[in-house]
Amino acid sequence: MSDFNVQQEINKRRTFAIISHPDAGKTTITEKLILLGKLIQVAGTVKGKKNDRAATSDWMSLEKERGISVTSSVMQFPYNDRIVNLLDTPGHEDFSEDTYRTLTAVDSALMVIDGAKGVEDRTIKLMNVCRLRDTPILSFVNKMDRDIRDPIELLDEIEEVLGIAAAPINWPIGMGRDFKGVYNLYTDTIHVFKPGKGSVIAEDIRIEGLESDEAKALLDDEYADFCDEIELVRGASHQFELEQYLAGQLSPVFFGTALSNFGVREMLDGFVEWAPAPLNRDTDVRTVDAREESFSGFIFKIQANMDPKHRDRIAFMRVCSGTYRKGMKMRHVRLGKDVKIADAVSFLAGDRELVEEAVSGDIIGLHNHGTIQIGDTFTEGEEVKFTGIPHFAPELFRRIRLRDPLKSKQLQKGLQQLSEEGSTQVFMPERNSDLIVGAVGVLQFDVVAYRLKDEYKVEAIYEPINVYTARWVDSDDDKAFAEFKRKCADNLAIDGGGHLCYLAPTRVNLSLTEERHPKVNFHATREH
Ligand code: G4P
């Protein structure tokens, strides 16, 4: 493409993910965003509604059986003069470590909150991951067409529970049956509620000025109360400050209803205006500027068997600088090898499409025949390694056992590879010969058992085990560390990468152990 201006292209990119609790409306809002943006590329699948899965990928029969998408996907669409990359974060039964890792590959996030339920626990977990990199968060309070909680209370909850300032951009006029629209606190404009049905985008009916006669007519008996409320909101809530948003300290908040496709456009307008273009990224050596010419990227996800016709795996790469051009040579830094990549893919409506060009902020898929791992860096020759793509401490644990004890070699090999891919994490206790697998989402266990059988021909069974969480441990004090290792030997294990972990049976046990060994560091994440 001769008129391909790289700097301009990079500045257009807005790469983000949605964080929310199941059922808050992530799928619905994704559909509306795509509708507004006229989808150009879909990688994997947009999780459809229950039995009505619009765009499906049938790459794995397990996925078919469950009617859900096992791994996340990437969607790219243009909006205004921007190119939006939306990385899906699996959230229901398909919640997994991939969900967390996807958040390491974005520049900002959209938090969707169910207005009736407020901040729920999955959102808190995902927010904690965003906090590792101070990711800017924009919020959408959904389901205004229902009776929701007091909006002021919701803002307080966001501030308290998530520890981030909340700055309302618009304010709802009524709710549920009496929902009349939203008032933009900055433009002094009312957007009148008119439900858009299905794939129809409702026209944007505006009333300029809260003082106007039309506004008075719309609000009728409630006019005076609403004006008082707005005065209160202006006085009591945070002002939107772009700098604070970009620093991850303040979240602009929009109210709306995704189902009725109302308020989504205003939110998206704000998003493409304020959300950061591709950000610079740290490596072990230096910070890579998103606008530098030399190509670089890292792998944040590996997806297996997406297409039954091609039994290989796809490694998802976030491009961090420069331009990917078809046929280019890349250095696979961990292996110290140059590889020619002619067949990086994006996905158009389920069919694989070859990418000609991709810039900072874009996601591309590389064919992986077992040589690529999560966290791998690719460059145009420079020996650097991107940081900030950690393993996350599993939240669920099972002992894994073989039906046929003669196959323990295959089991070890399979688990080793699956843990390198990031499908699961493996722990070997120091005091016994158990094999423990850890996961963030329960479906990961099924995926591992399925793939062990399908790809490694071993049948494994799970057994419950009393582990609450794992912490990677280290210390600068050799003596204190030796003492810790002696006293806690029963709880120590080595993970798939050879690192020492403390397996805590309960939350209380973990805090007591931390208290008793103040010179030992307990880490909830580990860099690859
Ligand atoms: P998720 O991906 O975050 O899990 O949520 P999803 O979009 O699937 O939405 C969960 C449920 O909430 C769906 O209803 C959806 O229709 C509904 N919903 C989403 N946004 C709104 C909204 O603005 N207002 C109202 N009233 N409901 C909303 P469901 O009954 O579970 O599914 P379906 O039968 O509608 O497909």
UniProtKB/TrEMBL annotation:
It is found in: Cytoplasm. CDD domains: RF3, RF3_II, RF3_III. The keyword Nucleotide-binding applies. Keywords: Cytoplasm, GTP-binding, Nucleotide-binding, Protein biosynthesis. InterPro entries: EF-G-like_DII, EFG_III/V, G_TR_CS, P-loop_NTPase, PrfC, RF3_C, RF3_dom_3_sf, RF3_GTP-bd. It comes from the Bacteria. GTP binds at residues 20-27, 88-92, 142-145. SUPFAM superfamilies: EF-G C-terminal domain-like, P-loop containing nucleoside triphosphate hydrolases, Translation proteins. Coiled coil: none annotated. Its main location: cytoplasm. Belongs to the TRAFAC class translation factor GTPase superfamily. Classic translation factor GTPase family. PrfC subfamily. PANTHER family: PEPTIDE CHAIN RELEASE FACTOR RF3. This is Peptide chain release factor 3.
